[in-house]
Amino acid sequence: MNTPSEYIANNKDRFLSELLDLLRIPSVSARSEHNNDMIHCAEMVASRLRAAGADLVEVCATAGHPIVYGEKIINPNFPTVLVYGHYDVQPADPLELWNSPPFEPMIKEGKIFARGACDDKGQMYMHVKAFETMMQTGTLACNIKFMIEGEEEVGSINLGKFVVENKSRLKADVILISDTSMISMETPSLDVGLRGLAYMEVEVVGPNRDLHSGVYGGAVANPATILAKLIASLHDENNHIAIPGFYNDVIGLTQEERSDLNAAPFNQNEYNDDLGIATEWGEKGFSTLERTGTRPTLEVNGIWSGYTGEGAKTVLPSKANAKISMRLVPNQNSDTISRIFSEHFNKIAPPTVKVKVTAHHGGEPYLTPTDSIPYLAGSKAIEATFGKKPVPTRSGGSIPIVALFERELGLKSMLFGFGLDSDNLHSPNEKYDIFNYYKGIETIPYFFKFFAEMQKES
Amino acid sequence: MNTPSEYIANNKDRFLSELLDLLRIPSVSARSEHNNDMIHCAEMVASRLRAAGADLVEVCATAGHPIVYGEKIINPNFPTVLVYGHYDVQPADPLELWNSPPFEPMIKEGKIFARGACDDKGQMYMHVKAFETMMQTGTLACNIKFMIEGEEEVGSINLGKFVVENKSRLKADVILISDTSMISMETPSLDVGLRGLAYMEVEVVGPNRDLHSGVYGGAVANPATILAKLIASLHDENNHIAIPGFYNDVIGLTQEERSDLNAAPFNQNEYNDDLGIATEWGEKGFSTLERTGTRPTLEVNGIWSGYTGEGAKTVLPSKANAKISMRLVPNQNSDTISRIFSEHFNKIAPPTVKVKVTAHHGGEPYLTPTDSIPYLAGSKAIEATFGKKPVPTRSGGSIPIVALFERELGLKSMLFGFGLDSDNLHSPNEKYDIFNYYKGIETIPYFFKFFAEMQKES
Question: Whole-model pTM?
Answer without folding.
Answer: 0.76
